[in-house]
Amino acid sequence: MKRVFAAVAVASALIATPALAQEFAGAHVGAEIGLVDDDFAGSDETTYGFNAGYDWDLGRSVVGVKATYIGIFDDNGTDFRELALMARAGVKATPRTLVYGTAGYSNLDAKFSSSIDGFKVGVGLEQSFGNVYANIETRYGNYEAGAELYQTAIGIGYRF
Asked: Which pLDDT score, from 0 to 100, does residue 6 have?
């Protein structure tokens, strides 16, 4: 029994060590839920979203890219969707906590018929739990025709 326990302990340590060594490196996918507002202090609408990306762990800092799909439902029943391609860069506050900023291109579409392009920036906090992570992020989007969106979302994801 002692040999089995020792073998399991050694195997667990070998499997867990690579995950601990690179908390923020590699491909990842995630889902989010949040709120969006078009004038920062007005009425909020619920959002949901999915994302996929890749990060490079540079030691104390992390850089990466991320593509997102966000669905927005307003009170009038109009469906909006947003597609974005973002870059992100951050610093590790702890070995498992990342503080980061994002910036990139965004496209907003109402009922998949009227599309406007824009630029999006944001800040976030990500906590790693091995291959699983949780994050909170707030973003600002500025689009053609003077449209603006303020978003705050919480998410969960998996890093490969």
From this structure: 47
Among 116, 122, 90, 91, residue whose Cα is nearest residue 104: 122
CA 133/CA 108 separation, integer angstroms: 27
Which residue type does 160 have?
F
Q: What letter represents residue 54's amino acid?
A: Y
Q: What is the pLDDT of residues 22-59, one digit of tens each?
A: 689 999 999 999 988 866 555 678 889 999 999 999 99
> What's the pLDDT score for residue 4?
44
Helix, strand and coil content of the chain, in percent to the nearest 5, comes to 15, 70, 20
pTM: 0.79
Residue type, 46: T
Distance CA 80, CA 109 (A): 6
**DSSP letter for each residue of 9-41:** HHHHHHHHHHHHHTTT-EEEEEEEEEEEESSSS
Give the single-character DSSP code of 8: H
**Residue 84 confidence (pLDDT) above 90:** yes
